[in-house]
């Protein structure tokens, strides 16, 4: 059935094209306008939130940036690099890098540490400071190498000159301290006081009476006899103890003697004649060639009088401890190692000399010195020939370590930056006392578990000395037991005869029956 439109009635015109989409477009424009208005009003809050996010997570962003921009070649064993991590060389502490590498001086792999952490100082070093070239120039710091010099103590005596039957004699009064340096037979140069322009006459010390009165004989005096005369006596330091007992002359080097030793950068006492690892921290030993006046000898650290020229000897006084190697330096005849007076910092409790290990890096070393001779001190222990010391401006270097306590470390295990630790560290136990306080002993480098074992063990089974009295104890595994000894020289004796030194394990208590 078909429906037709009646005639005369017009059909409705079709709607214009696009009219049906007008409401939709208006809705889209309204939504876009609303979103734009919301963004205009919220963009400040978004920017503020982004700023807080960047500031709060800056370390993470910096770490990712360093990782993406770092060189691709990297040792995986060194671990990831972060913003608070750096790498340094234990042998050359001035070499510091942000990335794993090798030291350009000693070619040793750099060790990872936290930035700003000075780390443990080597044995014998009580402070360390690094100065820039500009600060060294402004402070006037100047270094000089140590040399052997013929130091002598000069004593001047003034007194009346008396003429005897056979010879003339000078009698002078002096202090007890100066008289202790004199002995009969020493030569003296005598001149009239005031001088007469003639060469000095030769005399000899004849006697020392009452501890202060010195008599000098002048058998060859010529010319008029003055009322007063002045005698000058020079006492070579090489003829005084302990310098007189030091090895002198050329070292007796035999074919096959080692001409190099291997030492640990942080434990110089750990010396070996072959390559290996330090028994205290397990690090590889570094090779150090010997000088022309040095040789290797073997000794017992507990009994220094027990020495040998060949390896393998044992100390009977220690119960069979194997002698350990050490470097012996020979002094030239009539000379001693001298350090300038200006290089010595005397704190009253100890004397410190700052040694330049590398350009701008100074290590404070505690030294033992003899009496002053003119402008120099003779060195008993602590320094070696060729070391460069700060002879000018040493007090400024020392002041730098005191202004920044983070650069200095207390000696013998005292805590860094703890002033109260120094008096406690100076208190020593009586000789042979095994109950030495743990704070006085060198146990800080042990782990908490090993430290507890060492404190409970108390003494070395070989030498019977307190653990830590000779440095960080060495851990030894014997028959499944962890035992600590005072030094590496005791390990051989303990491992060779453990039944002699170790007590038997405690037996189980029998069951109690009523």
From TrEMBL:
Residues 87-111, 298-325 form the Heavy metal binding domain. InterPro entries: CzcB_C, HMBD, MFP_Cation_Efflux. Keywords: Transport. GO terms for molecular function: metal ion binding. This is Copper/silver efflux system membrane fusion protein CusB. The lineage of its organism: Bacteria, Pseudomonadati, Planctomycetota, Planctomycetia, Isosphaerales. GO terms for cellular component: cell envelope. Residues 337-397 form the CzcB-like C-terminal circularly permuted SH3-like domain. It comes from Aquisphaera giovannonii. GO terms for biological process: copper ion export; plasma membrane copper ion transport. Residues 1-23 are annotated as: Disordered.
């Amino acid at each position: 059935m078909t429906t037709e439109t009646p005639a005369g009635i017009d059909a409705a015109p079709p709607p214009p094209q696009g009219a049906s989409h007008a409401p939709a477009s208006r809705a889209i424009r309204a939504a876009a306008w609303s979103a734009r208005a919301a963004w205009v009003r919220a963009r400040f809050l978004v920017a503020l939130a982004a700023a807080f996010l960047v500031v709060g997570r800056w370390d993470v962003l910096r770490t990712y940036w360093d990782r993406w921009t770092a060189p691709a070649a990297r040792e995986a064993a060194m671990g990831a690099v972060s913003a608070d991590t750096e790498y340094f060389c234990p042998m050359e502490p001035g070499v510091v890098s942000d990335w794993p590498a090798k030291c350009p001086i000693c070619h040793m792999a750099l060790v990872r540490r936290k930035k700003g952490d000075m780390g443990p100082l080597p044995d014998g070093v009580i402070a360390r400071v690094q100065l820039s070239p500009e600060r060294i120039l402004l402070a006037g710091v100047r270094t000089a190498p140590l040399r052997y010099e013929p130091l002598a103590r000069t004593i001047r005596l003034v007194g009346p000159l008396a003429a005897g039957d056979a010879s003339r004699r000078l009698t002078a009064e002096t202090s007890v301290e100066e008289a202790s340096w004199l002995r009969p037979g020493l030569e003296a140069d005598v001149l009239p006081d005031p001088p007469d322009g003639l060469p000095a006459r030769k005399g000899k010390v004849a006697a020392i009476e009452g501890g202060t009165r010195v008599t000098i004989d002048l058998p060859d005096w010529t010319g008029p006899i003055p009322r007063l005369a002045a005698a000058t006596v020079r006492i070579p330091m090489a003829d005084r103890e302990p310098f007189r007992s030091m090895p002198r002359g050329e070292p007796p080097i035999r074919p096959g003697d080692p001409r190099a030793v291997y030492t640990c950068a942080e434990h110089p006492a750990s010396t070996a004649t072959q390559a290996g690892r330090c028994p205290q921290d397990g690090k590889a030993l570094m090779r150090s060639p010997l000088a022309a006046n040095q040789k290797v000898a073997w000794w017992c650290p507990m009994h220094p009088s027990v020495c040998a020229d060949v390896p393998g000897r044992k100390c009977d006084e220690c119960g069979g401890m194997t002698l350990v190697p050490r470097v012996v330096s020979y002094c030239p005849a009539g000379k001693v190692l001298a350090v300038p007076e200006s290089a010595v910092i005397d704190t009253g409790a100890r004397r410190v000399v700052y040694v330049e290990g590398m350009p701008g890096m100074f290590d404070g070393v505690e030294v033992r010195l003899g009496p002053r001779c003119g402008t120099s001190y003779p060195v008993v222990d602590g320094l070696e020939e060729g070391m460069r010391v700060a002879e000018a401006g040493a007090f400024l270097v020392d002041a730098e370590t005191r202004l920044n306590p983070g650069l200095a470390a207390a000696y013998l295990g005292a805590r860094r930056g703890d002033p109260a630790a120094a008096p406690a560290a100076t208190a020593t136990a009586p000789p042979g006392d095994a109950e030495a306080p743990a704070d006085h002993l060198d146990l800080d480098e042990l782990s908490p578990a090993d430290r507890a074992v060492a404190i409970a063990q108390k003494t070395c089974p070989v030498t019977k000395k307190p653990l830590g009295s000779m440095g960080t104890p060495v851990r030894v595994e014997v028959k499944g037991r962890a035992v600590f000894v005072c030094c590496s020289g005791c390990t051989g004796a303990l491992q060779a005869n453990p039944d002699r030194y170790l007590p038997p394990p405690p037996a189980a208590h029998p069951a109690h029956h009523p």
